[in-house]
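Narrative of activities, Objective 1.

The group set out to show that a structural description can be obtained from nothing but a protein's sequence at a throughput compatible with the screening campaign. Below is one input-output pair from the validation batch, recorded exactly as produced.
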Amino acid sequence: MKRRTVILSVSSLGAVALVAVTLFAAGPGGAFAHGRWASGGGWGGHGAARLCSDSRDAHIDDAIRFVEAFANFTPEQTGSWNALTTAVRNGSAKVGQACETAEAAGRPSQAPQHLARAELALTTALGVLQEVKPAFVDLYGKLNDEQRERIDDLLDRKGRYHRR
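Output recorded for this entry:
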């Protein structure tokens, strides 16, 4: 596999794992904002709208297909990769359920409702993280040094903007 292809596929692998882990990066104030509340300030904004959109699963599937198109996983890595993609998809389903719950509750108008929405967002995010993390750690342990380095660089804020 060419070096560039390895870099692309491993970077995308990290991105797929991050999809699940950062689904709630929008924060509690806007984690379920969508529809008319999609641009609703706080930490939410448009990222939260994508979080609860009907295209959430399509974006995840596109990222997974992209990695699979370039990755040359060993058989041992393939099993771990499949476990990770299952965890990510399960996490997306949990997010979808939480979005439906938040939508049914309507837009919060009082502080206790905002706190309840934040609690739903955070407990859902923690549940997704607890499912994705073990699968990711298992796969990470089976990657070679170069693959691990690429993922580490992807997750290092300084490394996101500087190429090696």
